[in-house]
Amino acid sequence: MANVAVVGAQWGDEGKGKIVDWLSVEADVVVRFQGGHNAGHTLVIDGATYKLALLPSGIVRPGKLSVVGNGVVVDPHFLVGEIERLREQGVEITPANFKIAENAPLILSLHRELDAHREEAAGGGAKIGTTKRGIGPAYEDKVGRRSIRLMDLAEPDTLDDKIARALAHHNPLRKGLGLPEIAPAMLREELLSVAPKVLPFMDAVWDLLDEQRRAGKRILFEGAQGVLLDVDHGTYPYVTSSNTVAASAASGSGLGPGAIGYVLGIAKAYTTRVGGGPFPTELHDAIGELIGDRGHEFGTNTGRRRRCGWFDAVLTRQAVKTSGINGIALTKLDILDGFDEIKICTHYMLDGKRVDRLPASQSAQARVTPVYESYPGWKETTSGARSWAELPAQAIKYVRRIEELIGAPVALLSTSPERDDTILVHNPFQD
After folding, report:
1. For this structure, is 77 an active site residue?
2. How far apart are the first and last CA of the chain?
3. How confident is the model at residue 232 (pLDDT cuts 50, 70, 90)?
4. Which phi and psi (to 5°) does residue 244 adopt?
5. For the structural domain made of 267-430, what CATH number should be given?
6. CA distances from 6 to 85, 186, 416 (A)
7. Which tens digits make up the pLDDT trace of 252-286?
8. According to its UniProt record, where is this protein mainly located (predicted)?
9. pTM for this prediction
10. 392/394 Cα distance (integer angstroms)
11. Contact between 249 and 33 (Cβ < 8 Å)
């Protein structure tokens, strides 16, 4: 039985929540390993809708252990609110079924303020498209070795020194930006007020997961955002602040890379992204609008409308390579029902030359133009299909061509938000 890492193979919003929930039935442990509460997952289970941002998707399944790893930046006040909202929906969340890494960095109010100030002050072309939730500044503090981490809340006597170290950086920065300085006592109160509510969930996650692995438990690693938003391998600087590739499932949880047996990439049957940055196949016409409307392409947590375009095989193939993706879960095929013509981007042209990857250069990314293959659409519906036999022939041809172009097989095919509307080709846990 293989442990499975699930990553977005595009710019996020690919439908990871449903796929993780679908897989979590066979998993014993579900682990978030990077990102923060800028990641939105929507789960539809037995007619009930759950909207998650920080908690792992497995939390809604009884009998599963859900874990937030050290690679995640945690807003403790947001976390408490999310726990309370889910409890109101009847979800049980206790220290027995939910753990947070003791060394997880915390997102503070000063991070949120700095994030929002930078984005609002940036000129049009300089806007990154951040969610303004403090994720980037919190990661900056982590690598700057001035983070306040979850374990620090358990040692209030040592907190003043850590607060002083953080404010020695932030207060001069805030002063230069025209923001009021923060009093140490205010930050201390912010932290201590939430400490009793989050500390019961604290654990040495790396050790706990090693025990689970050695006991033969099946672990599902749940990524946030998408591979194309990776801070190293994405469309920099229009990226998130963490490594979203599958390799960070190991570093973000405290397990070695050998603990990951199968990497499942999630990709929509078309392409979307939120915020600024290059998007070679973006459609600025009625078709793009129609895809967005039919696909309900609005951010789970932000409500922002997503940009939409045709499937980009170049980018997904790149994601397959940088994350070592073994198989793809293709989602939202049903959104393409009824189109007369459907297109797939097979390669780009850059300054008159063919290129088969997205260049790392920001200026080159802005200059690439997509080259498409066109396919006849299908008039029949794929919504709710649960076997290949229920799919129109043209839809099957479309899926097969995607497999050829990206260099990875389709392991699962999702045909609606409902959990059971899934065609299983290969069970990742059986790899």
Report:
1. no
2. 7
3. very high
4. -100, -5
5. 3.90.170.10
6. 25, 39, 19
7. 999 999 999 999 999 999 999 988 899 999 999 99
8. cytoplasm
9. 0.93
10. 5
11. yes
405: pLDDT strictly greater than 80 = yes
Q: Please, which pLDDT band fits residue 298 given cuts at 50, 70 and 90?
A: confident
| 170 classed as catalytic | no
Centre a 10 Å sphere on the Cβ of residue 312 and count the other Cβ atoms it contains.
29
Reduced to 3 states, what is the DSSP secondary structure of residue 339? coil
> Active site includes 111?
no
pLDDT band at 289 (very low <50, low <70, confident <90, very high): very high
Residue 256 annotated as part of some ligand binding site: no
Distance, CA of 427 to CA of 408 (rounded, Å): 15
Query: What pLDDT does 246 receive?
Result: 96
Say if residue 414 carries a ligand binding annotation. yes
Q: Vertex 404, ends 401 and 408: CA angle to 5°?
A: 120
pLDDT at 156: 96
Q: Which of 77, 111, 132, 142 is catalytic?
A: 142
pLDDT score for 124: 57
Which residue ranges make up each domain of the chain?
4-104+201-263, 109-198, 267-430
Choosing from 13, 75, 203, 230, the catalytic residue is 13
List, for residues 309-334, the tens digit of each pLDDT value: 999 999 999 999 999 999 999 999 99
Question: What is the fold, at CATH topology level, of the domain defined by 109-198?
Answer: Adenylosuccinate Synthetase, subunit A; domain 2 (1.10.300)
Confidence band of 123 (pLDDT split at 50, 70, 90): low
Per the annotation, does 38 bind a ligand? yes
CATH of span 4-104+201-263: 3.40.440.10
Shortest CA distance to 370 belongs to which of 310, 285, 321? 310
| List 21, 37, 41, 64, catalytic entry | 41
* Number of other CB atoms surrounding residue 131 within 10 Å: 25
Nearest residue to 429 (alpha-carbon basis) of 100, 62, 19, 73: 19
Burial of 89 from C-beta contacts in 10 A (0-12 / 13-18 / 19+): exposed
The CA distances from residue 394 to 187, 376, 379, 424, in Å, are 59, 7, 9, 19
240 is in an annotated binding site: yes
Beta carbons of 64 and 99 less than 8 angstroms apart? no
**Which residue bears the tokens 């133009």?**
369
Annotated ligand binding at 305? The verdict is yes
Which amino acid appears at position 264 of this protein?
L
How far from 183 is each of 17, 133, 168, 245, 312, CA to CA, in Å?
Answer: 40, 21, 11, 38, 49
Residue 105 is given by DSSP the state B
